[in-house]
Amino acid sequence: MVTVTADSTGLTTVRMSNGRHEWLADEPLDLGTDSAPNPYDLLLGALASCTCITISLYCKHKNIELRKVSVTCEHDRVHAHDCEECDDDTSGFVDRIHSQVEIDAELTEHQKERLTQIAVRCPVHKTLQSNIAFRDAMSFDAA
């Protein structure tokens, strides 16, 4: 199980830790101090980095000489009726993530097809596509 703890250090600045590493999050200037990536930046970073790692490990396993892999991710929200790829029964807003993967390697057509399949099988991608069950709890300190 992965555990990350977040503690506010200011109105919008948050320090996070997994017990081995620490990093910050903040909101842009219109809401915060822009001292760190915002939560969606971190989410997209998790997806982009996981995709890079998954492709790199697959190439190593298959002895494919990978010079470089780059992933760019973008997030937006649209009304469901403006979403061409959404089901007809979808309503409200839809979150969309667009990713662009660039691989620098000498590849056969078969390897290109396989890497296209592998890219969307990174664990973070699979998590974001799945039904996620939340178990939320609250506690309050008496002052």
Q: How would you write the strand order of the largest sheet?
A: 1-2-3
Low-confidence stretches: none
Strand content: 25-35%
Overall morphology: globular
Looking at CATH, which topology of the largest domain would you report?
A: GMP Synthetase, Chain A, domain 3
> SSE order, as H and E?
EEEHEEHH
Task: Provide the structure class.
Answer: alpha+beta
Termini separation: 32 Å
Q: Percentage of helical residues?
A: 25-40%
What is the CATH class name of the largest domain?
Alpha Beta
Oligomer: single chain
The number of helical elements comes to 3
Total count of strands? 5
Q: Can you tell me the CATH superfamily of the largest domain?
A: K homology (KH) domain
The CATH architecture category of the largest domain equals 2-Layer Sandwich
